Amino acid sequence: MQQSHRPLHDVKVLVTRPQQRASDLCQMIEQAGGSALQFAAIEITEPANFQSREYARDHIQEFALAIFISPTAVEKTFEFLTALPDGIRVSAIGSRTTRALEAMGLNVDIVPDGHDSESLLEHPQLQAGEIAGKKIVVFRGEGGRELLGDTLRSRGAEVFYADMYQRMPPTSASQLSRHLAEADIVAVSSNQGLQNLYDLATDKNSLTRHVLVVPGERSFTLAKTLGFSNIFIAENATDEACMNVLEYVTAKMSKKL
Hints:
2 domains, 10 strands
């Protein structure tokens, strides 16, 4: 019988976050009585082109606002930059990114209510009257969405992307088939991770029959396109939101037994 204080009792969850970002979620799953099977569907590597991050470092004094897209962007930026200059304002997308900046001793001036670019763009301090004529640097991974920059430029800002890392498919998928054979639930944290997982799976029908947890509507749409049918949507990509859905899904599964 499932124990209330161990809501994931005996459930095996395939965690596909990048290796640098997976430990907290895996620990939460284990503490809830489940088993975390780790397969990093994305590997974080150095950017293919160093020019944008070097420009950001050399011209950082010129920017009025620095936006950090992810915890990885925070980590990789401060591996490359020693500090941000006094006077530059700081913004983050998502609570995990905010916590990562605060752990660096930075005050985060602009925090959206949600966990995506759309929510950040709704913030009053990023409207045309506030940012027109200002230079903004966005610290991110290579090949990210262009929505943020395009919208801020349309509001009169000068936006520069600093690519601090790139997200690559894993170099080895040797453990994936074994983990999929064991897993009850597959949890993904991004569209790219989901696509990589699908591309790497040798038995795609077996993969798409799994219960899948995704972080939002865009990932849900991709999952449907790839052939998944048993999909549950987390409120966002945070560990806490993922755990909420994992516990809900486990409860539903246990009722069917």
